[in-house]
Every structure is written in structure tokens, then in C-alpha cells.
Amino acid sequence: MREKLRVAAYAVCVRDGQILLARSPASDGTPEWVLPGGGMEHGEDPYDTVRRELMEETGYRIEVTGLLGIDSRRHRFARENLLTRVTDHHSVRIVYSGEVVGGELRNEVNGSTDLAAWQDLDAVPALRRVGLIDTALRLWRERPAAGRFAEGPS
């Protein structure tokens, strides 16, 4: 079994009742909304990762205003190719709160996302979205002291 660890950093940026999101194609190609952010590069600090990724995906510069929590998730999946190989994938997702301090909203070019937009918080439940958005919004609303919920990872 192949083991894969991915560490990533994301930011919840909320202003005037809206959250900043990006759109990315799902594995089946259907667009879905994601939290701006992404994978750390080797040797990169997560604080720098979230600021870099936000700039790449949305055009905004942000100030990191707090650490909301860490979401750890693990799942196994098989990829079909010449040899079916099972991967044990472990995602560690660092979730910050952030405030836009500069730049202008724009879409990413030749990246993992194709659209950046402010979405009404009330409209989020109706969006096609990744589960991390719900986890991050819950962290943002509840601000658990330990940076995670009593029931553990989502």
C-alpha cells in the first residue's frame, strides 16, 4: 500500500456577510467551490503557504488574523491503471482566519482553480462544495480552544 501525506493551509476570509471562495473541478470534472489555499512546498512555513496560495487563487493579499484549527483526515482509495494500487492518503489541513489587506479580486490563470468569488454565507449550504468549507466555517464560528471539535476530525 502506498502512503501519501499532504499538508496544506487555507484561510477563512469573511467580510460583510460573505466568504471568499475559489472554484475547482472535482474528480469527475464538475466545478465545486473550495476554500482558498493549498499544499505546502518543502521547507515552506504554513503561514507563508496560505498567503501565497490566496494571492495565486484570488489576487488578494491577506493578513493572517488567527489560527482556527487543524483538520486531519485519512482515507484509502484505489487508482485504476496498469496495476491497481491502493493509496492510504492522509491530509493535514491548517485553517487560518484572514483579512484582505490588498490586491484585487481576479481568477487564477493556469492553476488548480478557475474562478474566485465572494459568496453569501447564507448561500453556502446550497453550493456544490468540498467538505472542508463546512469544517472551516464551523471552526470560524465556534473557535474551539483546542482547534478541533470534541468528536475529533470531520
Structural summary, described in words:
The radius of gyration is 16 Å and the shape is globular. The chain has a single domain (2-142), classed as Nucleoside Triphosphate Pyrophosphohydrolase, CATH 3.90.79. The strands form two sheets. The chain has a four-stranded mixed sheet. Strands 2, 3, 4 and 8 form a four-stranded antiparallel sheet that branches. It has 154 residues and is α+β, with helices and mostly antiparallel strands. The mean pLDDT is 92. The chain has helices spanning 46-58, 131-142; strands at residues 2-12, 14-15, 18-25, 31-34, 37-39, 60-79, 85-103, 115-120. It has two helices and eight strands, in the order E-E-E-E-E-H-E-E-E-H.
* Integer count of domains: 1
Number of helices: 2
**CATH class value:** Alpha Beta
Order of helices and strands: EEEEEHEEEH
Topology diagram in text:
Elements: E1 2-12, E2 14-15, E3 18-25, E4 31-34, E5 37-39, H1 46-58, E6 60-79, E7 85-103, E8 115-120, H2 131-142
Parallel strand pairs: 1-7
Antiparallel strand pairs: 1-5, 2-3, 3-4, 3-8, 6-7
Summed up:
16% of the residues lie in helices and 47% in strands. The chain is built from two helices and eight strands; from the N terminus they run E-E-E-E-E-H-E-E-E-H. It has a four-stranded mixed β-sheet with strand order 5-1-7-6.
